[in-house]
């Protein structure tokens, strides 16, 4: 695995890292959902009907599940420092410019540690901001770290179900670190991504939103 070590600017990451932001929004959504179902459960108990007690019990179960999700999600994803330390350095480029952001096209090895060979695929990610990079320059090189996970714990596939690039620029303000990351990635991979820009719109329609490629 091609790792890349650099000092993560935690304050910067918390303010601009959209992976961290997604987890934060998921946690607050789960907490709000839990509170709403607790309120529904209380209202149903106040009604004091046999059927309302049953529904109240269901509402409590949903509330507990949502509250558990609010604590489980951040633990599953890990800290931003862990994400950058444990992921693989991968190339990504600005493939499509949008009114409020851009779509990144990335080349990622989606194989799990026990796989007998690498499984390379094109993946995309829509970003809203990217400090240190131009979102209007198609082909802009955006060195990233791959974030890999499964939707379920019982997956037996050799490849990860969920794959996403997390830009180095979301973890540091230092342009020297970004340049060093770009240089660590072979030109062949950057060139492959540039040639694959026309395939960007095909990626979301592929299985698991991963378009296999030969490297």
Notable characteristics:
215 residues; alpha+beta; putative membrane protein from Corynebacterium diphtheriae fold; 2 domains
What do you see in this structure?
With 215 residues, the protein is an alpha+beta fold. The chain has six helices and seven strands, in the order H-H-H-H-E-E-E-E-E-E-H-H-E. It has a four-stranded antiparallel beta sheet, covered by helices on one side. Strands 1-5-6 form a three-stranded antiparallel beta sheet, with no helix packed on it. The mean pLDDT is 87.
Give the second-level CATH assignment, the architecture of the largest domain: Beta Barrel
As a percent range, the share of strand residues is 15-25%
Sheet having the most strands: 4 strands, antiparallel
CATH T-level fold name of the largest domain: putative membrane protein from Corynebacterium diphtheriae fold
Q: H/E element string?
A: HHHHEEEEEEHHE
**Number of helices in the DSSP assignment:** 6
- Runs with pLDDT <50, length 5+? none
| Spatial sequence of strands, sheet with the most strands | 2-3-4-7
CATH C-level category of the largest domain: Mainly Beta
